[in-house]
Amino acid sequence: MSSVCTTVAEIRNDPVATLYGGGFTLLATPPDNSDVKTWARRPTNSWVKLGGPGATFAATAIFVYGISPNRDGVWKWNNDGTDWRRIGGPAKDLIVGGYNSVFATNPDSGDIFHWISGDKWEKVGGPGFEFAVDGQGGLYGISPNKGGVMKWQGSGMNWTKIGGAASRIFAGGAGVFVLNPDNTEIRRWTGAANTWEMIGGGGKEYAVTDDGLFGLNSAGQVWKWDGGENWSNTAAPSAKQLVASP
């Protein structure tokens, strides 16, 4: 998860492999997945390297997390150069959001756990197809058979169904979004159970920050949702970054 140096690389006009978002932070990995970078609006207006390769990454309002390449540990970026520290053991998926809500799934059982502090975690649910956390730290998931969208009630293992069948889920400060079962539409949750609005066609990947919803098309171009069903192409994301160039 760490590297011996910090490099500022201008890759905003090059394709990226994966987008990750949270708070006002937008992360990206290049096509070869060799490292992870964050968009630094000030002072460089460029992508800044945070560390080496990882299996996946995620960001809360102020922190960045990742799972090591072989998924044997959960790591937290120390907000300095490319320095990281380990906070947990093996994990399959990493789900974070809000100010600092962190969840991870067990690689064997699929159960989902909530990070308390240090290396302490608590189980909050069984397996799900996919999970996401919104800007207030709320946890959402798609059932294992993709038949419904669920919301964790914030304590124990209590969940409520809020939507029907979905293939992917994305959440952050800008809201909660799902792709329909055949990946042809992306929809936004209105806040009422079973009430969703279509906002666009399906894309390759999405990331949600406090500054908006970003989508990645098949050509590796980044688009930003402008409301309704309107999207605009953005080579340089406008998201205000908490992480700046060292």
Average pLDDT over all residues:
83
Name the CATH architecture of the domain at 8-135 and 203-233. Answer: 4 Propeller
| CATH third-tier fold name of the domain at 8-135 and 203-233 | Hemopexin
Round the Cα radius of gyration to an integer and report it: 17 Å
How are the strands ordered across the major sheet? 1-5-4-3-2
How many DSSP E strands? 25
Shape: globular
User: What is the succession of H and E elements?
Assistant: EEEEEEEEEEEEEEEEEEEEEEEEE
Which spans have pLDDT < 50 for at least 5 consecutive residues? 1-12, 236-246
Provide the CATH top-level class of the domain at 8-135 and 203-233.
Answer: Mainly Beta
Task: Give the tags.
globular; mainly beta; 5-stranded antiparallel sheet; disordered C terminus; Hemopexin; Beta-propeller_rpt_TECPR; 4-stranded antiparallel sheet
Give a structural overview:
- The protein has a domain at about 10-135 and about 205-235: Hemopexin.
- About 0% of the residues lie in helices and about 50% in strands.
- The protein is built from no helices and 25 strands.
- A hairpin with a 6-residue loop joins strand 8 and strand 9 (about 85-90).
- The radius of gyration is 17 Å and the shape is globular.
- The two termini are about 20 Å apart.
- The model is unreliable at about 1-10 and about 235-245 (pLDDT under 50).
